[in-house]
Amino acid sequence: MSEVKISKRRFIAGAVCPACSELDTIQMWDEDGVPHRECVGCGYADTLNEQGQSVPKEIGTRVNKAAVKPADPKVQSVHFFPNPKLKKPAP
Ligand SMILES: [Zn+2]
Fold first, then answer.
1. Which of 10, 28, 29, 51 has its CA 20 to 30 Å from the CA of residue 40?
2. Beta pairing class for 10-11 and 54-56
3. Which residues pair with 39 in a beta bridge?
4. Global pTM exceeds 0.90
5. CA neighbours within 13 Å on the CB side: how many for 74?
């Protein structure tokens, strides 16, 4: 009895597709409170996690993209954000 509530899709003005770099092709909607995005130009789709970070749906293409390297054990991830509030949301 888990009904997924899906909101209406809406275009995001000024949004640029991370895959094809087209402007104003991104549609956004919510499924069960989870923001989903999809590009009507190239079909790129992803969701956003709680941190507002992009979680691509297509996993088959990840090899072609700038590979996310596994954390180097020698280099502890010491990320220093002078002001975390200035962190830009994903476009
Ligand atoms: Zn696109």
1. 51
2. unpaired
3. 26
4. no
5. 0
CA distance 79 to 61: 27
Q: Are 39 and 25 in contact (CB under 8 A)?
A: yes
Distance 73 CA to ligand 1 centre (A): 35
Instruction: Give me Rg for the CA atoms of the chain.
Output: 16
Q: How far is the CA of 89 from the centre of ligand 1 (A)?
A: 18
Distance of alpha carbon 30 from alpha carbon 37, whole angstroms = 9
- Alpha-carbon span 86 to 3, nearest angstrom: 36
Measured in Å, residue 30 CA sits from the centre of ligand 1 at 19
Distance 45 CA to ligand 1 centre (A): 8
Whole-number Å distance between alpha carbons of 86 and 43: 30
